[in-house]
Amino acid sequence: MMTSIKTLLLVKHSKTGNTQLLCDAFLEGARRVSNIRVRIVDALHGVPSDLMECSALVLATPENFGTMSGGMKHFFDQTYYEVEALQLALPYQLIISAGNDGTGAEREMQRILTGYKFRQIGTALIVRGRPLGPDLDAAEELGESVATALELGII
Ligand SMILES: Cc1cc2nc3c(=O)[nH]c(=O)nc-3n(C[C@H](O)[C@H](O)[C@H](O)COP(=O)(O)O)c2cc1C
Questions:
Q1: b/e per residue, 100-131, with b = 16+ CB within 10 A?
Q2: Rg for the chain (alpha carbons), in Å?
Q3: Which ligand 1 atom minimizes the distance to the CA of 14?
Q4: Fold topology of 6-152
Q5: Cα of 43 to ligand 1 centre, how many Å?
Q6: What stretches of the chain show up as alpha helix (H) in DSSP?
Q7: Which residue lies with its CA nearest to atom 6 of ligand 1?
Q8: What predicted TM-score, i.e. pTM, was given to this entire model?
Q9: Of 32, 71, 93, 124, which one's alpha carbon is 20 to 30 angstroms from that of 147?
Q10: Closest atom of ligand 1 relative to the 16 alpha carbon
Q11: Using a 6 Å CB cutoff, which residues line ligand 1?
């Protein structure tokens, strides 16, 4: 029997490296799962076809000025019209790196992603300050669980 390979898209933006650390840990977990191809796209360079060609989506951003980073906002600005019309209903997971909050970025991205008709699959991972061991463990576990859920077809 042929097993289909599904694509998990990671759209990320990081200025000083904290979000990147969480992404690296997430990827380590996700790559343990068979039959899942992880595609990584920098938010500044993402295009609509990135979303059209994936089965699930992870968005990782710092919180800047109470919302997502400008890079992540750029990704939404670049992809919204083409993708919203398709009603893809993609499952998504949020990863947010913040100094002391993160909830503004979470709320604003949820609002935008509702416009895409995408559906959130779990609580956002919000890490405040430089990610430490337990934060990286949580990101790694998240990567494995999202990829497993996608492989099993339960998201
Ligand atoms: C311009 C700027 C604005 C920021 N605004 C917020 C904010 O509104 N809330 C918050 O909790 N942290 C804020 N921070 C802190 C960053 O979210 C935090 O340092 C984060 O870990 C940076 O992620 P990065 O290393 O991936 O760029 C801000 C940082 C910068 C540089």
A1: eebebbbebbeebbeebebeebeebbbbeeeb
A2: 14
A3: 26
A4: Rossmann fold (3.40.50)
A5: 16
A6: 18-30, 48-52, 70-84, 103-116, 133-152
A7: 64
A8: 0.98
A9: 71
A10: 25
A11: 14-20, 62-66, 97-102
Give the span between the Cα atoms of 95 and 6, in whole angstroms: 21
Mutate to test the pocket of ligand 1, among 16, 67, 101 (most ligand atoms within 8 A of CB): 16
Over the stretch 29-87, which tens digit does the pLDDT of each residue have? 999 999 999 999 999 999 999 999 999 999 999 999 999 999 999 999 999 999 999 99
DSSP-assigned letters across all residues of 25-69: HHHHHHTTSTTEEEEEEEGGG--HHHHHT-SEEEEEEEEETTEE-
2: confidence class by pLDDT, cuts 50, 70, 90:
low
How many other C-beta atoms are found inside a 10 Å radius of the C-beta of residue 37?
14
Distance 98 CA to ligand 1 centre (A): 5
